[in-house]
Specification:
- The structure is a homotrimer.
- Chain A is an alpha+beta fold.
- The first copy, chain A, is built from seven helices and 14 strands.
- The first copy, chain A, has a seven-stranded mixed beta sheet with strand order 2-1-3-5-4-6-7.
- In chain A, strand 10 and strand 11 form a beta hairpin.
- Chain A is globular, with a radius of gyration of 21 Å.
- Chains in contact: A-B, A-C, B-C.
- At the A-B interface, strand 1, strand 2 and helix 2 of A face helix 1 of B.
């Protein structure tokens, strides 16, 4: 039973996702299909990378991940298939893979050349499903494309380190369902550069001297429940994906607001950690 | 083929739902996974209860229901697993179960103690999936936790009856996809207290002397179609879940509005039935 | 393993979709269930037709398509089941089928008469799932209903041709996830009427003398990437479903806007092609 995931900017109202699933079942009747996300902001490769790198590792090896974000074939945007960390990816060559494969290199990459309908504006349906079906049947990547030795690079998920190594300069790369604001500073980088030094996290006009591991770390459970007043407080946390996040405890983005709206932190804004 | 449902406030854009599904398939390769809802308002236990109690009974017995709403483990929020009405639930002990189990008591409840990573901020991925996999493999609840005899109580879904039994005092507990407004007054309670007496339903400054069984009960089909003008009319109905609902016939919340916006009825507002 | 799709206006927050899936698994334990859309605008039959006609053909023959849009049973709105182009549909008789079956007639149609609970306000759960289960078990349509020879007609998806055949007069029938605006003018009709003549597409105060096959056809790849400035440009295209669409290249409806908001084109607005 092949496992195929979908990560797209199609939304869930239109016929796009249904059409793709129908085509997958028509080719691979015993497929199991999982939606990772169809809510990516249109054409946003950085969001795609953040979501996919945090989701894909939880699937069994051999899973085939189809990506439908900015995937129309043209001179600048080739279609590729690759094996990375035991997982297959079928996607455009638009920088996405470089943001997922930051620590592990792909084992093999091919430029897909089975296209019999180059004029398609719906590549996922007309090309990627066929490629996934080929892989699901145990086919090799070499049959469907020409081996490549490199792929496009994008550095949006990478924080900067000045030569003095006295700080990490990051940016907001994602705002999640709770309005929490996620930076491109990983816990791994924080440990490598910080080496146990004390630090200050700066985001907009706020600063934090502690980075938590759990949201409820900021609650003082020694107080009676009605005196705690922790809901609505801001905190810094290394989230479950390992990235530095600025959060509001128990925020609701659609009513009182979340970290993004309450602290005025938007996509691409700077977040830094200064070491002493 | 174990059946596992997910009810969360994760939204569907982020990687959370995909990561959980990947982990489930990694543990239970023949699982069937069903999304009940990922659109719960953040941390809203009452909404969770309303949605889950109306959905779960339709699944076959033995289904495992994972709940990811306000589920971070802390001193005040334990993780529990239980068997209720032939269904398994893996969820936080935050009052939710008391709103689902209003008529049937759980057969067995345990406080989960298999945690090997207490500092997780993503309990559904790190704990609940393991518990579900254990149950799916036929494991007993006793192996994964300590038997409990009670659980937290919440009364948000319960309408009030004054000593005179001359009315039922309810509140808005949910606003649905159509903008229809749902109270915590059940048809069962209405029959028990009303005993066939005539009644007036009061909601905001509106009143209703009839509670319908179908939305189109308010349409006069003896008139020619173009003279009916029933679209946009308000009505009271016992909805398919058995709760008193104030609705606008064929409303569209995002254009002209629904009962919530047009009649000014919001979450927690009072709705009463007075008997004569 | 029967394949069952769902197309509804239920949204994905409420319990409706979960309840229906639970009931399907209770009746047909080896079903594969696919969501085509739950985001249809409430009671909008034209949107339903556009989405379903573009999705259903990609599924294998024998797939059962359940439609839950405006499906409450009443004197004017019968429940039907039918076989069309090798696919089963279980839906209300509200004009929907006439917009899907524009080129192929249904092989067989029945008016469902197995209702044992006419007072239901949740027909999909209480009736359509039973009908789908009957079909999935290999049952004939005749057992669950009375053969019909006709069905309700709706012409919303049909563009108009004046006697002179010098133009095609269409309307906006759908606005997609990217804000792109889709008309009821098909490429097939364009070829039949146009017969290779030159043409002008008119939409709001804009005109187009070319209809593209791919979105990136408007990009001049001979220029260096930073000089292209094609993002945000408007274009006309026959989309992957074969309908004339007015699009903004790489638009984002929720930030800068899409064709609908930027060009002022709304549902039902006129779009024409004039031939010379």
């Amino acid at each position: 039973m092949p496992l195929i995931t979908l990560t797209t900017d199609f939304g869930t109202k239109d016929h796009f996702v249904g059409a793709v699933k129908g085509a997958i079942y028509s080719s691979i009747s015993d497929a199991r299909i999982v939606d990772i996300s169809h809510g990516i902001s249109p054409f946003n490769t950085t969001e795609t990378a953040y979501i996919l790198r945090n989701a894909y590792k939880n699937f069994p090896e051999g899973t085939i991940h189809i990506v439908g974000v900015d995937s129309e074939l043209n001179e600048d945007n080739k279609h590729i298939a690759l094996l990375l960390n035991g997982h297959y990816f079928v996607c455009p060559d638009n920088g996405l893979i470089s943001m997922i494969a930051t620590e592990i290199n792909p084992t093999r990459i091919v430029e897909i050349n089975i296209h019999d309908r180059l004029e398609s504006s719906f590549s996922v349906l007309d090309v990627f499903v066929q490629v996934a079906a080929h892989i699901a049947r145990g086919g090799t990547l070499e049959v469907i494309g020409k081996t490549m030795t490199t792929f496009k690079k994008s550095f949006e998920l990478q924080a900067q380190i000045p030569a003095e190594q006295n700080k990490i300069i990051g940016n907001v790369i994602y705002i999640d369902n709770y309005g929490n604001v996620i930076s491109n500073i990983t816990e791994k980088l924080f440990k490598e550069i910080g080496k146990g030094r004390t630090y200050i996290v700066r985001a907009s006009r706020y600063s934090f001297t502690k980075i938590n591991q759990k949201y409820s770390d900021i609650v003082d459970f020694t107080l009676p429940a009605h005196q705690r007043q922790s809901d609505g407080n801001k905190l810094a946390i290394f989230n479950s994906a390992g990235f530095l996040e600025i959060a509001i405890y128990k925020s609701n983005l659609t009513t009182v607001g979340g970290a993004s709206s309450l602290l005025g932190l938007d996509y691409r804004d700077r977040i830094t950690i200064e070491f002493q």
